Amino acid sequence: MAKAPTVIGVLTEPPAPTWWKVNRHKVFGIGGLLIGYLIGTHLAGAPEQQPATPRPGHTAPAPATSG
Question: 10-44 as b/e, with b when 16 or more CB fall inside 10 Å?
Fold first, then answer.
C-alpha cells in the first residue's frame, strides 16, 4: 500500500511515481525498435535479387541485311 503524502507546511510531498511512470519510455522505445525490426525484415519492399549473369561489355547494332 502506498504511503500517504507527507505535509510540508502548506504543501504536500507528491507520492513516489509508479514503476510504469518511471519506465514507460523504455518500454515504448524497446517495443518500437522491435516492431520496426520486424517490419523491416519481414515485409519485402524490394523485389528479390536476380542471379548475376554475365552481360556483354557493350552493345552493337544488328547487322544490316540486304534484301
Answer: eeeeeeeeeeeeeeeeeeeeeeeeeeeeeeeeeee
Q: For the chain, first and last CA: distance in Å?
A: 101
Rounded to 5°, the CA angle 14-16-18 comes to 130
- The pTM for the full model equals 0.48
β-pairing verdict for 11-12 and 7-8: antiparallel
pLDDT digits (tens, 9 = 90+) for 2-60: 677 777 777 778 889 999 999 999 999 999 999 999 998 887 666 667 777 777 677 77
